[in-house]
Amino acid sequence: MTKEEGEQQGFALKDYTDPPPAALFDINEFTLWSFYRALIAEFIATLLFLYITIATVIGHSRNSTDCGSVGVLGIAWSFGGMIFVLVYCTAGISGGHINPAVTFGLFLARKVSLPRAILYMIAQCLGAICGAGLVKAFQKSFYDRYGGGANFVHPGYTKGVALAAEIIGTFVLVYTVFSATDPKRSARDSHVPVLAPLPIGFAVFMVHLATIPITGTGINPARSFGAAVIYGHKQSWNDHLICWMQWLRLYIYQL
Fold first, then answer.
1. Of the candidates 30, 1, 26, which has an alpha carbon nearest to the alpha carbon of residue 13?
2. What is the pTM of this model?
3. Residues in the chain with pLDDT < 70?
4. Strand, helix or coil at 144?
5. CA 127/CA 168 separation, integer angstroms
6. Angstrom distances, CA of residue 72 to CA of 27, 56, 64, 232
7. How many Å from the N-terminal Cα to the C-terminal Cα in the chain?
8. In Å, how far are 52, 59, 115, 134, 137 from 41, measured between CA atoms?
9. Which residues of 222-253 are buried (b: 16+ CB within 10 A; e: fewer)?
10. Rounded-to-integer distance, Cα 198 and Cα 190, Å
11. With contact defined as beta carbons under 8 Å apart, do 167 and 246 qualify?
């Protein structure tokens, strides 16, 4: 049936094609250079993300009493802006995940295979550790003095409130990722694939504005993990589980 015939019968045929679900295990991926290039892209992107954002957090803490501090708004812009830039740069190579929560959500939606999801998350966590390590190497005294950009529950909030804030923030981010990359939207508006990094970056920006006062915002488990590993203080590890329990929420959402 042609599109014209379908329209004459009162309905329009699909103007988009749903991509087939990814295989749970795809051994052929390991023979492709593009697979390893994607892993390198995720590693480098997460490294750069942690370096720029944690350096911004440390710089804010150093100058928090001066007018030169970027403030919470500047920190939120740092996180959102870097996600926008890095997703734009890596979307054509690895999909621009830069976040184990995003990778896990896409795996549950059958967008990526299990081996790719696991190796992406490993690359992201290793990149996060290296990025936080670079910040500490460049400004060790300030890094240790001002908390290393690690996530923890701030005074005045309970762990339950912190967990709820992280769950909602992660939902906003992953929901935006799925909406921005929806093939139906891409079919209707040809410019959407080009603009997809923009709403994703804005989602990160808005969530940070809301949750920085609560947990410092840990909607990216790799970001929380890398900072906790390099900072190494007990408080950051005590509250670290909150950042990973978002995955249960993602599983429920996919169901």
1. 1
2. 0.84
3. 1-17, 64-68, 185-194, 234-255
4. helix
5. 25
6. 45, 10, 10, 24
7. 34
8. 16, 27, 16, 18, 23
9. bbbbbbbbbbeeeebeebbebbeebbebbeeb
10. 15
11. yes
